[in-house]
Amino acid sequence: MHELSLCRSIGQIVRRHAEDRRVTVVHLQVGQLRQVVPDTLVYCWGLVNEGTTCEGSVLDVDHVPAVIECRDCGATTRLVEMSMACGACGSTAVAVTAGEELLVTSIELQGV
Ligand SMILES: [Zn+2]
Asked: 83-98, pLDDT tens digit by residue?
């Protein structure tokens, strides 16, 4: 499962920063293009953290909508239904400017 391996790598990043301190909340930015199911991600987060300093912590997922910029007309539009076409003129000469994020933005530790 995609989400399970994601949670494992997120857990590694978080624990590296937290050292031996107990983690309470993890704030995560996930771009729309990552095609992650938020509920599954939260469920997997609980699974991979058993017996670690992240056990019982909350995964706060912030969804970042995908945005594309058109090379033909210059418009910046929200990506709808995964069709890589400009929302203004329909051109497919577009570049993704947002939506590929997958990053831990901050973590909260117990007693800090
Ligand atoms: Zn356009």
From this structure: 889 999 999 999 999 9
> What does the alpha-carbon distance between residue 8 and residue 20 come to, in Å, rounded to a whole number?
17
> Global pTM?
0.84
What separation in Å is there between the alpha carbon of 101 and the centre of ligand 1?
Answer: 23
Whole-number Å distance, alpha carbon 100 to ligand 1 midpoint, is 20
Given a contact cutoff of 8 angstroms between Cβ atoms, the answer to whether 42 and 7 are in contact is: no
Q: What is the whole-number distance in angstroms between the Cα of residue 47 and the centre of ligand 1?
A: 44
CA–centroid distance, 95 to ligand 1, in Å, is 11
Complete domains list, the chain, with CATH: 2-109 (3.30.2320.80)
Instruction: Write out the two tokens for 24.
Output: 């309470």
